[in-house]
Protein backbone atom coordinates (compact mmCIF):
# COMPACT_ATOMS: atom_id res chain seq x y z
CA UNK A 1 0.00 0.00 0.00
CA UNK A 2 3.08 2.22 0.20
CA UNK A 3 5.49 3.54 -2.40
CA UNK A 4 9.13 2.66 -3.11
CA UNK A 5 11.62 4.33 -5.43
CA UNK A 6 15.36 3.73 -5.68
CA UNK A 7 18.01 5.15 -8.00
CA UNK A 8 21.62 4.38 -8.83
CA UNK A 9 23.52 6.11 -11.60
CA UNK A 10 25.59 9.21 -12.30
CA UNK A 11 23.04 11.92 -11.55
CA UNK A 12 22.17 13.45 -8.18
CA UNK A 13 19.87 10.92 -6.56
CA UNK A 14 17.85 13.17 -4.23
CA UNK A 15 15.89 15.12 -6.91
CA UNK A 16 15.14 11.90 -8.79
CA UNK A 17 13.91 10.17 -5.64
CA UNK A 18 11.74 13.12 -4.62
CA UNK A 19 10.21 13.29 -8.09
CA UNK A 20 9.53 9.56 -7.90
CA UNK A 21 7.81 9.97 -4.54
CA UNK A 22 5.62 12.74 -5.93
CA UNK A 23 4.53 10.37 -8.70
CA UNK A 24 3.65 7.78 -6.06
CA UNK A 25 1.63 10.17 -3.89
CA UNK A 26 -1.64 8.97 -5.41
CA UNK A 27 -1.19 5.65 -3.60
CA UNK A 28 -1.87 7.36 -0.26
CA UNK A 29 0.59 7.84 2.63
CA UNK A 30 1.15 9.63 5.92
CA UNK A 31 4.94 10.02 6.00
CA UNK A 32 7.92 9.94 3.67
CA UNK A 33 11.67 9.52 3.81
CA UNK A 34 14.84 8.78 1.91
CA UNK A 35 18.31 7.40 2.46
CA UNK A 36 21.30 8.27 0.30
CA UNK A 37 24.66 6.53 0.24
CA UNK A 38 28.05 7.78 -0.85
CA UNK A 39 31.51 6.49 -0.23
CA UNK A 40 31.38 5.53 3.45
CA UNK A 41 28.35 7.75 4.17
CA UNK A 42 24.64 7.13 4.73
CA UNK A 43 22.25 10.06 5.11
CA UNK A 44 18.69 9.45 6.34
CA UNK A 45 15.95 12.12 6.15
CA UNK A 46 12.33 11.41 7.22
CA UNK A 47 9.24 13.55 7.74
CA UNK A 48 5.61 13.09 8.72
CA UNK A 49 3.16 14.46 6.15
CA UNK A 50 3.49 15.25 2.47
CA UNK A 51 6.50 14.78 0.21
CA UNK A 52 6.77 18.59 0.07
CA UNK A 53 7.84 18.56 3.73
CA UNK A 54 10.53 15.99 2.97
CA UNK A 55 11.71 18.15 0.09
CA UNK A 56 12.00 21.12 2.44
CA UNK A 57 14.01 19.01 4.88
CA UNK A 58 16.36 17.89 2.10
CA UNK A 59 17.10 21.54 1.28
CA UNK A 60 19.12 21.59 4.51
CA UNK A 61 21.60 19.17 2.92
CA UNK A 62 23.01 21.05 -0.09
CA UNK A 63 25.65 18.36 -0.63
CA UNK A 64 22.87 15.98 -1.72
CA UNK A 65 22.28 17.95 -4.90
CA UNK A 66 25.43 16.79 -6.68
CA UNK A 67 27.56 14.36 -4.71
CA UNK A 68 25.28 11.45 -3.86
CA UNK A 69 24.15 9.35 -6.80
CA UNK A 70 22.49 6.37 -5.11
CA UNK A 71 19.57 6.12 -2.73
CA UNK A 72 16.15 4.77 -1.81
CA UNK A 73 12.95 6.53 -0.77
CA UNK A 74 9.51 5.61 0.54
CA UNK A 75 6.00 6.85 1.27
CA UNK A 76 4.29 5.03 4.15
CA UNK A 77 0.74 4.31 5.28
CA UNK A 78 0.90 3.42 8.98
CA UNK A 79 0.21 -0.24 9.77
CA UNK A 80 2.47 -1.10 12.71
CA UNK A 81 3.11 2.07 14.71
CA UNK A 82 1.49 5.50 14.50
CA UNK A 83 2.50 8.02 11.81
CA UNK A 84 5.76 9.58 13.05
CA UNK A 85 9.24 10.38 11.81
CA UNK A 86 10.75 7.49 13.76
CA UNK A 87 8.25 5.02 12.28
CA UNK A 88 8.69 6.37 8.75
CA UNK A 89 10.94 4.57 6.29
CA UNK A 90 13.83 4.12 5.60
CA UNK A 91 14.95 2.16 8.68
CA UNK A 92 18.64 1.98 9.53
CA UNK A 93 20.75 -0.32 11.65
CA UNK A 94 22.40 1.02 14.81
CA UNK A 95 25.66 1.91 13.07
CA UNK A 96 23.90 3.58 10.11
CA UNK A 97 25.63 1.28 7.66
CA UNK A 98 22.46 -0.27 6.21
CA UNK A 99 19.07 1.18 5.28
CA UNK A 100 15.91 -0.48 4.01
CA UNK A 101 12.48 0.49 2.72
CA UNK A 102 9.71 -2.07 2.91
CA UNK A 103 6.20 -2.62 1.56
CA UNK A 104 4.18 -5.46 3.02
CA UNK A 105 3.70 -7.00 6.46
CA UNK A 106 6.18 -9.13 8.42
CA UNK A 107 3.84 -11.52 10.20
CA UNK A 108 6.50 -13.01 12.51
CA UNK A 109 8.05 -9.68 13.51
CA UNK A 110 7.36 -10.19 17.23
CA UNK A 111 9.44 -13.38 17.30
CA UNK A 112 12.20 -11.83 15.18
CA UNK A 113 12.30 -8.71 17.33
CA UNK A 114 12.62 -10.82 20.51
CA UNK A 115 15.42 -12.84 18.91
CA UNK A 116 17.30 -9.71 17.86
CA UNK A 117 16.82 -7.92 21.18
CA UNK A 118 18.29 -10.91 23.02
CA UNK A 119 21.34 -10.51 20.80
CA UNK A 120 21.69 -6.86 21.82
CA UNK A 121 20.02 -5.10 18.89
CA UNK A 122 18.10 -1.94 19.82
CA UNK A 123 14.93 -0.86 18.03
CA UNK A 124 13.96 2.76 17.43
CA UNK A 125 10.54 2.26 15.86
CA UNK A 126 7.30 0.38 16.53
CA UNK A 127 7.21 -1.05 13.02
CA UNK A 128 7.41 -4.61 11.80
CA UNK A 129 9.77 -3.42 9.04
CA UNK A 130 12.72 -2.50 11.27
CA UNK A 131 13.49 -6.16 11.98
CA UNK A 132 14.58 -6.52 8.34
CA UNK A 133 17.48 -4.10 8.52
CA UNK A 134 18.78 -5.68 11.75
CA UNK A 135 18.55 -9.15 10.20
CA UNK A 136 20.61 -7.89 7.26
CA UNK A 137 23.19 -6.36 9.60
CA UNK A 138 23.36 -9.64 11.54
CA UNK A 139 23.84 -11.73 8.38
CA UNK A 140 26.28 -9.38 6.61
CA UNK A 141 29.70 -10.87 5.84
CA UNK A 142 30.78 -8.63 2.99
CA UNK A 143 28.07 -9.49 0.41
CA UNK A 144 24.94 -7.33 0.61
CA UNK A 145 22.88 -9.55 -1.70
CA UNK A 146 23.67 -12.68 0.32
CA UNK A 147 22.88 -10.88 3.59
CA UNK A 148 19.54 -9.73 2.18
CA UNK A 149 18.75 -13.25 1.00
CA UNK A 150 19.56 -14.63 4.45
CA UNK A 151 17.31 -12.02 6.05
CA UNK A 152 14.27 -12.55 3.83
CA UNK A 153 14.45 -16.32 4.27
CA UNK A 154 13.52 -15.68 7.92
CA UNK A 155 10.46 -13.55 7.10
CA UNK A 156 6.87 -14.75 7.14
CA UNK A 157 4.38 -12.54 5.32
CA UNK A 158 4.87 -10.23 2.37
CA UNK A 159 7.65 -7.90 1.36
CA UNK A 160 8.95 -5.68 -1.37
CA UNK A 161 12.22 -4.23 -0.08
CA UNK A 162 15.11 -2.12 -1.31
CA UNK A 163 18.40 -2.06 0.59
CA UNK A 164 21.45 0.22 0.44
CA UNK A 165 24.69 0.27 2.44
CA UNK A 166 27.48 2.77 2.97
CA UNK A 167 29.83 -0.18 2.45
CA UNK A 168 28.54 -0.58 -1.12
CA UNK A 169 27.96 2.86 -2.70
CA UNK A 170 26.16 2.59 -6.02
CA UNK A 171 24.48 -0.72 -5.16
CA UNK A 172 20.78 -1.32 -4.41
CA UNK A 173 19.55 -4.78 -3.47
CA UNK A 174 15.84 -5.45 -3.97
CA UNK A 175 13.74 -8.47 -2.98
CA UNK A 176 10.10 -9.33 -3.52
CA UNK A 177 7.47 -11.69 -2.14
CA UNK A 178 3.84 -10.71 -2.55
CA UNK A 179 4.47 -6.97 -2.91
CA UNK A 180 5.24 -5.60 -6.38
CA UNK A 181 8.62 -4.32 -7.48
CA UNK A 182 9.74 -3.33 -10.95
CA UNK A 183 13.24 -2.45 -12.19
CA UNK A 184 13.68 0.43 -14.62
CA UNK A 185 16.53 0.07 -17.12
CA UNK A 186 18.25 3.29 -18.16
CA UNK A 187 21.43 4.41 -19.89
CA UNK A 188 24.21 4.41 -17.27
CA UNK A 189 21.54 4.31 -14.55
CA UNK A 190 18.95 1.91 -13.19
CA UNK A 191 16.00 2.25 -10.85
CA UNK A 192 13.69 0.20 -8.67
CA UNK A 193 10.09 1.10 -7.81
CA UNK A 194 6.84 -0.33 -6.55
CA UNK A 195 4.95 1.25 -9.47
CA UNK A 196 5.99 2.00 -13.04
CA UNK A 197 4.61 5.57 -12.80
CA UNK A 198 7.69 6.50 -10.73
CA UNK A 199 10.03 5.25 -13.46
CA UNK A 200 8.53 6.84 -16.58
CA UNK A 201 10.49 10.12 -16.58
CA UNK A 202 13.73 8.06 -16.81
CA UNK A 203 12.84 4.95 -18.84
CA UNK A 204 10.12 2.81 -20.40
CA UNK A 205 12.12 -0.44 -20.31
CA UNK A 206 11.31 -2.48 -17.21
CA UNK A 207 11.74 -5.87 -15.58
CA UNK A 208 8.99 -7.13 -13.27
CA UNK A 209 10.34 -9.13 -10.35
CA UNK A 210 8.67 -12.41 -9.46
CA UNK A 211 8.05 -13.64 -5.94
CA UNK A 212 11.32 -14.96 -4.53
CA UNK A 213 13.52 -12.80 -6.78
CA UNK A 214 16.46 -10.83 -5.42
CA UNK A 215 18.21 -8.23 -7.59
CA UNK A 216 21.54 -6.48 -7.29
CA UNK A 217 21.10 -3.17 -9.12
CA UNK A 218 24.09 -1.09 -10.20
CA UNK A 219 24.40 1.78 -12.70
CA UNK A 220 25.92 -0.54 -15.29
CA UNK A 221 23.84 -3.68 -14.84
CA UNK A 222 21.41 -5.96 -13.05
CA UNK A 223 22.12 -9.29 -11.37
CA UNK A 224 18.96 -11.33 -10.77
CA UNK A 225 18.86 -14.29 -8.38
CA UNK A 226 16.41 -16.29 -6.31
CA UNK A 227 16.51 -16.63 -2.52
CA UNK A 228 18.84 -19.63 -2.89
CA UNK A 229 21.31 -17.40 -4.80
CA UNK A 230 20.68 -19.16 -8.13
CA UNK A 231 20.78 -16.85 -11.19
CA UNK A 232 17.42 -16.30 -12.92
CA UNK A 233 16.33 -14.52 -16.09
CA UNK A 234 13.36 -12.19 -16.49
CA UNK A 235 11.90 -10.68 -19.65
CA UNK A 236 12.41 -6.99 -20.42
CA UNK A 237 9.05 -5.29 -21.06
CA UNK A 238 8.30 -1.95 -22.75
CA UNK A 239 5.76 0.46 -21.27
CA UNK A 240 3.44 1.84 -23.95
CA UNK A 241 2.34 5.03 -22.17
CA UNK A 242 4.47 7.99 -21.18
CA UNK A 243 4.78 10.23 -18.15
CA UNK A 244 2.35 12.80 -19.58
CA UNK A 245 -0.46 10.25 -19.27
CA UNK A 246 0.01 10.35 -15.51
CA UNK A 247 -0.26 14.15 -15.27
CA UNK A 248 -3.38 16.15 -14.37
CA UNK A 249 -3.15 18.50 -17.31
CA UNK A 250 -5.68 21.32 -16.93
CA UNK A 251 -7.94 19.39 -14.55
CA UNK A 252 -8.04 20.27 -10.83
CA UNK A 253 -7.93 16.59 -9.83
CA UNK A 254 -6.82 13.32 -11.37
CA UNK A 255 -10.26 11.89 -10.65
CA UNK A 256 -12.03 14.45 -12.81
CA UNK A 257 -9.47 13.99 -15.58
CA UNK A 258 -9.99 10.23 -15.48
CA UNK A 259 -13.78 10.58 -15.50
CA UNK A 260 -13.51 12.69 -18.65
CA UNK A 261 -11.09 10.22 -20.26
CA UNK A 262 -13.70 7.46 -20.28
CA UNK A 263 -14.97 7.93 -23.85
CA UNK A 264 -11.41 7.30 -25.01
CA UNK A 265 -10.59 4.53 -22.53
CA UNK A 266 -13.78 2.58 -23.27
CA UNK A 267 -13.03 3.07 -26.95
CA UNK A 268 -9.53 1.69 -26.35
CA UNK A 269 -11.02 -1.29 -24.49
CA UNK A 270 -13.22 -2.25 -27.45
CA UNK A 271 -11.02 -1.08 -30.35
CA UNK A 272 -10.16 -3.94 -32.70
CA UNK A 273 -12.19 -6.35 -30.58
CA UNK A 274 -15.56 -6.11 -32.34
CA UNK A 275 -16.47 -7.92 -35.54
CA UNK A 276 -19.66 -6.11 -36.52
CA UNK A 277 -20.31 -8.24 -39.58
CA UNK A 278 -20.17 -11.51 -37.67
CA UNK A 279 -21.71 -10.02 -34.54
CA UNK A 280 -18.85 -11.27 -32.41
CA UNK A 281 -15.94 -10.20 -30.24
CA UNK A 282 -12.25 -10.92 -30.90
CA UNK A 283 -10.27 -11.46 -27.70
CA UNK A 284 -6.97 -13.07 -28.61
CA UNK A 285 -5.64 -12.78 -25.07
CA UNK A 286 -8.08 -15.46 -23.93
CA UNK A 287 -6.12 -18.08 -25.89
CA UNK A 288 -9.23 -20.29 -25.96
CA UNK A 289 -10.51 -22.02 -29.09
CA UNK A 290 -14.22 -22.18 -29.95
CA UNK A 291 -14.17 -25.76 -28.64
CA UNK A 292 -12.59 -24.60 -25.37
CA UNK A 293 -15.23 -21.87 -25.03
CA UNK A 294 -18.05 -24.34 -25.68
CA UNK A 295 -16.82 -26.56 -22.84
CA UNK A 296 -17.07 -23.82 -20.18
CA UNK A 297 -19.95 -24.80 -17.91
CA UNK A 298 -19.55 -22.29 -15.10
CA UNK A 299 -17.89 -18.91 -14.51
CA UNK A 300 -16.57 -17.60 -11.20
CA UNK A 301 -15.52 -13.94 -11.01
CA UNK A 302 -13.21 -12.79 -8.19
CA UNK A 303 -12.43 -9.20 -7.25
CA UNK A 304 -12.45 -6.53 -4.56
CA UNK A 305 -14.11 -3.12 -4.36
CA UNK A 306 -14.90 -1.57 -7.74
CA UNK A 307 -13.53 -4.62 -9.53
CA UNK A 308 -16.02 -6.82 -7.67
CA UNK A 309 -18.85 -4.47 -8.64
CA UNK A 310 -17.77 -4.70 -12.28
CA UNK A 311 -17.79 -8.47 -11.89
CA UNK A 312 -21.35 -8.32 -10.54
CA UNK A 313 -22.39 -6.50 -13.71
CA UNK A 314 -20.57 -9.21 -15.65
CA UNK A 315 -22.61 -11.87 -13.85
CA UNK A 316 -25.76 -10.49 -15.51
CA UNK A 317 -23.97 -10.40 -18.86
CA UNK A 318 -22.74 -13.99 -18.79
CA UNK A 319 -26.06 -15.40 -17.64
CA UNK A 320 -28.34 -13.26 -19.84
CA UNK A 321 -26.25 -13.23 -23.01
CA UNK A 322 -24.32 -16.51 -22.88
CA UNK A 323 -26.54 -18.62 -20.62
CA UNK A 324 -23.64 -19.66 -18.39
CA UNK A 325 -24.14 -20.03 -14.65
CA UNK A 326 -21.98 -17.33 -13.00
CA UNK A 327 -21.12 -16.37 -9.45
CA UNK A 328 -19.11 -13.44 -8.06
CA UNK A 329 -16.79 -13.92 -5.11
CA UNK A 330 -15.10 -11.41 -2.88
CA UNK A 331 -11.51 -12.39 -3.67
CA UNK A 332 -10.45 -12.92 -0.04
CA UNK A 333 -13.39 -15.25 0.54
CA UNK A 334 -12.54 -17.20 -2.60
CA UNK A 335 -9.26 -18.18 -1.01
CA UNK A 336 -10.38 -18.89 2.52
CA UNK A 337 -13.70 -20.66 2.09
CA UNK A 338 -12.36 -23.51 -0.04
CA UNK A 339 -14.51 -22.90 -3.15
CA UNK A 340 -15.80 -25.74 -5.28
CA UNK A 341 -14.15 -25.59 -8.70
CA UNK A 342 -15.79 -28.05 -11.05
CA UNK A 343 -14.31 -29.27 -14.34
CA UNK A 344 -14.64 -26.67 -17.11
CA UNK A 345 -14.97 -23.78 -14.67
CA UNK A 346 -13.62 -20.46 -15.92
CA UNK A 347 -12.30 -18.18 -13.17
CA UNK A 348 -12.01 -14.47 -14.03
CA UNK A 349 -9.93 -12.45 -11.54
CA UNK A 350 -10.42 -8.70 -11.99
CA UNK A 351 -7.90 -6.11 -10.76
CA UNK A 352 -6.96 -2.70 -12.09
CA UNK A 353 -3.40 -2.88 -10.74
CA UNK A 354 -2.94 -6.63 -11.10
CA UNK A 355 -1.29 -6.51 -7.68
CA UNK A 356 -4.29 -6.76 -5.31
CA UNK A 357 -3.13 -9.22 -2.64
CA UNK A 358 -6.46 -10.97 -2.11
CA UNK A 359 -7.03 -11.35 -5.85
CA UNK A 360 -3.52 -12.75 -6.37
CA UNK A 361 -4.33 -15.33 -3.70
CA UNK A 362 -7.57 -16.16 -5.53
CA UNK A 363 -5.65 -16.68 -8.78
CA UNK A 364 -3.26 -19.08 -7.08
CA UNK A 365 -6.13 -20.98 -5.46
CA UNK A 366 -7.94 -21.26 -8.81
CA UNK A 367 -4.82 -22.41 -10.66
CA UNK A 368 -4.13 -24.94 -7.91
CA UNK A 369 -7.64 -26.36 -8.27
CA UNK A 370 -7.26 -26.82 -12.00
CA UNK A 371 -9.52 -24.04 -13.22
CA UNK A 372 -9.15 -22.15 -16.47
CA UNK A 373 -8.05 -18.69 -15.35
CA UNK A 374 -8.42 -15.55 -17.48
CA UNK A 375 -7.46 -12.25 -15.88
CA UNK A 376 -8.81 -8.76 -16.50
CA UNK A 377 -6.01 -6.30 -15.68
CA UNK A 378 -4.95 -2.81 -16.62
CA UNK A 379 -1.22 -3.12 -15.91
CA UNK A 380 0.86 -5.09 -18.38
CA UNK A 381 3.33 -7.38 -16.62
CA UNK A 382 1.52 -7.24 -13.28
CA UNK A 383 1.56 -10.27 -11.00
CA UNK A 384 -2.01 -11.34 -11.78
CA UNK A 385 -1.47 -10.91 -15.53
CA UNK A 386 1.63 -13.10 -15.38
CA UNK A 387 0.33 -15.77 -13.02
CA UNK A 388 -3.04 -16.18 -14.72
CA UNK A 389 -1.23 -16.96 -17.95
CA UNK A 390 -4.02 -15.60 -20.16
CA UNK A 391 -6.29 -12.61 -20.05
CA UNK A 392 -7.56 -9.38 -21.51
CA UNK A 393 -5.92 -6.02 -20.87
CA UNK A 394 -8.14 -2.99 -20.27
CA UNK A 395 -5.92 -0.44 -22.09
CA UNK A 396 -7.21 2.31 -19.77
CA UNK A 397 -3.80 3.89 -19.22
CA UNK A 398 -2.57 4.97 -15.79
CA UNK A 399 -5.32 5.49 -13.22
CA UNK A 400 -3.89 7.79 -10.57
CA UNK A 401 -6.85 8.77 -8.40
CA UNK A 402 -7.48 6.26 -5.62
CA UNK A 403 -11.18 6.09 -6.50
CA UNK A 404 -11.48 3.97 -9.64
CA UNK A 405 -13.44 5.45 -12.53
CA UNK A 406 -12.08 4.68 -15.98
CA UNK A 407 -10.79 1.25 -14.94
CA UNK A 408 -14.29 0.32 -13.75
CA UNK A 409 -15.94 1.32 -17.04
CA UNK A 410 -13.25 -0.50 -19.03
CA UNK A 411 -13.76 -3.63 -16.91
CA UNK A 412 -17.50 -3.52 -17.61
CA UNK A 413 -16.87 -3.03 -21.34
CA UNK A 414 -14.45 -5.96 -21.53
CA UNK A 415 -16.82 -8.23 -19.57
CA UNK A 416 -19.54 -7.35 -22.09
CA UNK A 417 -17.18 -8.28 -24.94
CA UNK A 418 -16.46 -11.61 -23.25
CA UNK A 419 -20.18 -12.26 -22.82
CA UNK A 420 -20.76 -11.48 -26.50
CA UNK A 421 -18.02 -13.92 -27.51
CA UNK A 422 -19.40 -16.68 -25.29
CA UNK A 423 -22.96 -15.90 -26.35
CA UNK A 424 -22.14 -16.23 -30.05
CA UNK A 425 -20.34 -19.47 -29.21
CA UNK A 426 -23.61 -20.82 -27.78
CA UNK A 427 -27.09 -19.42 -28.28
CA UNK A 428 -26.80 -15.91 -29.70
CA UNK A 429 -27.67 -15.57 -33.40
CA UNK A 430 -25.54 -13.59 -35.80
CA UNK A 431 -28.16 -10.83 -36.08
CA UNK A 432 -28.53 -10.64 -32.28
CA UNK A 433 -24.77 -10.50 -31.93
CA UNK A 434 -24.49 -7.75 -34.54
CA UNK A 435 -27.13 -5.70 -32.75
CA UNK A 436 -25.30 -5.99 -29.43
CA UNK A 437 -21.93 -5.29 -31.07
CA UNK A 438 -23.28 -2.05 -32.55
CA UNK A 439 -24.64 -1.04 -29.14
CA UNK A 440 -21.21 -1.65 -27.60
CA UNK A 441 -19.61 0.43 -30.35
CA UNK A 442 -21.85 3.37 -29.36
CA UNK A 443 -20.93 3.27 -25.65
CA UNK A 444 -18.16 5.94 -25.87
CA UNK A 445 -20.57 8.41 -27.48
CA UNK A 446 -23.19 7.75 -24.77
CA UNK A 447 -20.57 8.52 -22.13
CA UNK A 448 -19.70 11.77 -23.93
CA UNK A 449 -23.34 12.81 -23.73
CA UNK A 450 -23.30 12.31 -19.95
CA UNK A 451 -20.07 14.28 -19.57
CA UNK A 452 -21.67 17.15 -21.50
CA UNK A 453 -24.07 17.49 -18.57
CA UNK A 454 -21.34 17.91 -15.96
CA UNK A 455 -22.46 21.40 -14.93
CA UNK A 456 -26.05 20.25 -14.49
CA UNK A 457 -24.86 17.37 -12.30
CA UNK A 458 -22.67 19.81 -10.35
CA UNK A 459 -25.72 21.97 -9.58
CA UNK A 460 -27.69 18.95 -8.36
CA UNK A 461 -24.79 17.69 -6.26
CA UNK A 462 -24.46 21.09 -4.62
CA UNK A 463 -28.01 20.80 -3.30
CA UNK A 464 -27.20 17.51 -1.58
CA UNK A 465 -23.66 18.14 -0.35
CA UNK A 466 -24.74 18.82 3.25
CA UNK A 467 -26.41 15.41 3.72
CA UNK A 468 -24.45 12.81 5.68
CA UNK A 469 -26.36 9.66 4.66
CA UNK A 470 -27.42 8.34 1.26
CA UNK A 471 -29.18 5.26 -0.08
CA UNK A 472 -28.51 4.09 -3.65
CA UNK A 473 -30.99 1.65 -5.21
CA UNK A 474 -31.13 -0.20 -8.50
CA UNK A 475 -32.36 -3.38 -10.15
CA UNK A 476 -30.86 -5.84 -12.60
CA UNK A 477 -27.39 -4.86 -13.80
CA UNK A 478 -28.01 -1.40 -12.33
CA UNK A 479 -28.00 -2.95 -8.85
CA UNK A 480 -24.18 -3.39 -8.82
CA UNK A 481 -23.99 0.03 -10.50
CA UNK A 482 -25.80 1.42 -7.44
CA UNK A 483 -23.25 -0.32 -5.20
CA UNK A 484 -20.45 1.29 -7.19
CA UNK A 485 -22.07 4.73 -7.01
CA UNK A 486 -22.40 4.44 -3.22
CA UNK A 487 -18.77 3.33 -2.96
CA UNK A 488 -17.59 6.38 -4.93
CA UNK A 489 -19.46 8.70 -2.56
CA UNK A 490 -18.02 6.98 0.51
CA UNK A 491 -14.49 6.94 -0.84
CA UNK A 492 -14.03 10.58 -1.69
CA UNK A 493 -16.61 12.58 0.28
CA UNK A 494 -16.66 10.49 3.51
CA UNK A 495 -20.46 10.51 3.33
CA UNK A 496 -22.12 7.38 4.63
CA UNK A 497 -23.74 5.73 1.61
CA UNK A 498 -25.33 2.32 1.21
CA UNK A 499 -26.17 0.56 -2.03
CA UNK A 500 -29.12 -1.84 -2.12
CA UNK A 501 -31.11 -3.87 -4.55
CA UNK A 502 -34.31 -1.83 -4.66
CA UNK A 503 -36.36 -4.83 -3.51
CA UNK A 504 -34.33 -4.92 -0.28
CA UNK A 505 -35.68 -1.56 0.89
CA UNK A 506 -38.78 -3.16 2.37
CA UNK A 507 -36.69 -5.78 4.16
CA UNK A 508 -35.26 -3.39 6.73
CA UNK A 509 -33.48 -0.30 5.33
CA UNK A 510 -36.74 1.60 4.73
CA UNK A 511 -37.00 1.98 8.54
CA UNK A 512 -34.21 4.56 8.31
CA UNK A 513 -35.79 6.78 5.68
CA UNK A 514 -36.85 10.32 6.52
CA UNK A 515 -36.14 13.84 5.27
CA UNK A 516 -32.47 13.49 6.31
CA UNK A 517 -31.77 10.42 4.14
CA UNK A 518 -31.74 11.09 0.38
CA UNK A 519 -32.23 8.18 -1.99
CA UNK A 520 -30.51 7.99 -5.36
CA UNK A 521 -32.65 5.74 -7.56
CA UNK A 522 -31.48 4.28 -10.88
CA UNK A 523 -34.68 4.49 -12.91
CA UNK A 524 -33.38 4.06 -16.46
CA UNK A 525 -35.91 2.97 -19.07
CA UNK A 526 -34.91 -0.70 -19.03
CA UNK A 527 -36.62 -3.80 -17.62
CA UNK A 528 -37.42 -3.20 -13.94
CA UNK A 529 -38.22 0.49 -14.34
CA UNK A 530 -41.86 0.15 -13.23
CA UNK A 531 -40.74 -1.58 -10.02
CA UNK A 532 -38.22 1.21 -9.36
CA UNK A 533 -41.00 3.80 -9.77
CA UNK A 534 -42.90 2.00 -7.03
CA UNK A 535 -39.81 2.07 -4.81
CA UNK A 536 -39.43 5.80 -5.44
CA UNK A 537 -43.00 6.39 -4.28
CA UNK A 538 -42.31 4.38 -1.12
CA UNK A 539 -39.30 6.61 -0.40
CA UNK A 540 -41.27 9.80 -1.00
CA UNK A 541 -44.02 8.55 1.35
CA UNK A 542 -41.32 8.55 4.08
CA UNK A 543 -40.36 12.15 3.15
CA UNK A 544 -36.96 11.06 1.82
CA UNK A 545 -35.57 13.33 -0.93
CA UNK A 546 -35.10 11.35 -4.14
CA UNK A 547 -32.56 11.96 -6.90
CA UNK A 548 -33.08 9.75 -9.95
CA UNK A 549 -30.94 8.73 -12.86
CA UNK A 550 -33.39 8.37 -15.75
CA UNK A 551 -33.49 8.11 -19.52
CA UNK A 552 -33.67 11.39 -21.42
CA UNK A 553 -37.27 12.48 -21.85
CA UNK A 554 -38.74 10.46 -18.99
CA UNK A 555 -41.21 13.01 -17.57
CA UNK A 556 -42.87 10.49 -15.28
CA UNK A 557 -39.67 10.05 -13.28
CA UNK A 558 -39.16 13.80 -13.30
CA UNK A 559 -42.55 14.35 -11.68
CA UNK A 560 -41.98 11.72 -9.00
CA UNK A 561 -38.55 12.92 -7.83
CA UNK A 562 -36.82 16.02 -6.49
CA UNK A 563 -34.01 16.00 -9.05
CA UNK A 564 -33.14 13.97 -12.14
CA UNK A 565 -29.84 13.24 -13.86
CA UNK A 566 -30.68 12.26 -17.42
CA UNK A 567 -28.65 9.71 -19.38
CA UNK A 568 -29.07 8.64 -23.04
CA UNK A 569 -31.43 5.86 -24.05
CA UNK A 570 -29.71 2.49 -24.35
CA UNK A 571 -30.27 -1.20 -23.67
CA UNK A 572 -29.99 -2.79 -20.23
CA UNK A 573 -26.56 -4.15 -21.15
CA UNK A 574 -25.08 -0.74 -22.00
CA UNK A 575 -26.91 1.19 -19.25
CA UNK A 576 -24.30 0.58 -16.50
CA UNK A 577 -21.68 2.57 -18.44
CA UNK A 578 -23.32 6.02 -18.83
CA UNK A 579 -25.06 5.56 -15.47
CA UNK A 580 -21.79 4.87 -13.63
CA UNK A 581 -20.23 7.97 -15.19
CA UNK A 582 -23.15 10.11 -13.97
CA UNK A 583 -22.72 8.70 -10.45
CA UNK A 584 -18.98 9.36 -10.55
CA UNK A 585 -19.60 13.01 -11.39
CA UNK A 586 -22.24 13.28 -8.66
CA UNK A 587 -19.82 11.91 -6.04
CA UNK A 588 -16.98 14.08 -7.31
CA UNK A 589 -18.94 17.33 -7.10
CA UNK A 590 -20.25 16.52 -3.62
CA UNK A 591 -16.67 15.91 -2.47
CA UNK A 592 -15.60 19.24 -3.99
CA UNK A 593 -18.43 21.04 -2.17
CA UNK A 594 -17.41 19.40 1.11
CA UNK A 595 -13.76 20.39 0.64
CA UNK A 596 -12.44 16.82 0.67
CA UNK A 597 -9.06 15.52 -0.47
CA UNK A 598 -10.29 13.82 -3.62
CA UNK A 599 -7.35 12.06 -5.24
CA UNK A 600 -5.88 10.79 -1.96
CA UNK A 601 -8.81 10.11 0.38
CA UNK A 602 -7.91 9.39 3.98
CA UNK A 603 -7.03 5.83 5.02
CA UNK A 604 -7.17 4.53 1.43
CA UNK A 605 -4.49 3.38 -0.97
CA UNK A 606 -4.70 2.82 -4.70
CA UNK A 607 -3.39 -0.72 -4.72
CA UNK A 608 -4.09 -2.92 -1.70
CA UNK A 609 -1.02 -5.16 -1.70
CA UNK A 610 -1.48 -6.59 1.82
CA UNK A 611 -4.33 -8.66 3.21
Describe what you observe in this structure.
- The protein is an alpha/beta fold and about 600 residues long.
- It folds into 3 domains: about 5-245, Glutamine Phosphoribosylpyrophosphate, subunit 1, domain 1; about 250-450, 3-Layer(aba) Sandwich (Rossmann fold), CATH 3.40.50.10490; about 455-600, Rossmann fold, CATH 3.40.50.10490.
- Helix 4 packs across helix 5 (about 145-150), helix 7 (about 260-270) packs antiparallel against helix 14 and helix 13 (about 405-425) runs antiparallel to helix 14.
- The longest helix has 22 residues, at about 430-450.
How is this fold's topology laid out?
Elements: E1 3-8, H1 13-23, E2 31-38, E3 41-48, H2 51-58, E4 70-76, E5 91-92, E6 98-103, H3 109-118, H4 130-139, H5 144-152, E7 159-165, E8 172-177, E9 182-185, E10 190-193, E11 205-208, E12 213-218, E13 221-226, E14 237-238, H6 254-260, H7 262-270, E15 274-275, E16 280-281, H8 290-294, E17 298-303, H9 306-322, E18 325-330, H10 331-336, E19 345-351, H11 357-368, E20 372-373, E21 375-377, H12 383-388, E22 391-393, H13 406-426, H14 430-451, H15 454-464, E23 469-474, H16 478-493, E24 496-501, E25 519-522, H17 529-541, E26 546-551, H18 555-560, E27 563-567, H19 576-593
Parallel strand pairs: 17-18, 17-19, 19-20, 19-21, 21-22, 23-24, 23-25, 25-26, 26-27
Antiparallel strand pairs: 1-4, 1-10, 2-3, 2-4, 5-6, 6-7, 7-8, 8-12, 9-10, 9-11, 11-14, 12-13, 15-16
Helix pairs in contact: 1-2, 4-5, 7-13, 7-14, 9-13, 9-16, 13-14, 14-19, 15-19, 16-19
- Indicate the low-confidence ranges by residue numbers: none
What is the H level of CATH, i.e. the homologous superfamily of the largest domain?
A: Aminohydrolase, N-terminal nucleophile (Ntn) domain
Could you say which structural class the secondary elements and strand pairing correspond to? alpha/beta
Number of helices: 19
Number of strands: 27
Instruction: Report the portion of residues in β strands.
Output: 15-25%
Q: In what order do the strands lie side by side in the largest sheet?
A: 3-2-4-1-10-9-11-14
Task: Give the C-level CATH assignment of the largest domain.
Answer: Alpha Beta
**Number of structurally distinct domains:** 3
CATH architecture group name of the largest domain: 4-Layer Sandwich
Instruction: Report how far the terminal alpha carbons are from each other.
Output: 10 Å
Gyration radius, rounded: 25 Å
- The helix fraction, in percent, is 25-40%
Q: Give the integer mean of the pLDDT values.
A: 91
Q: What is the CATH topology of the largest domain?
A: Glutamine Phosphoribosylpyrophosphate, subunit 1, domain 1
- Indicate the overall shape: globular
Main beta sheet, described? 8 strands, antiparallel
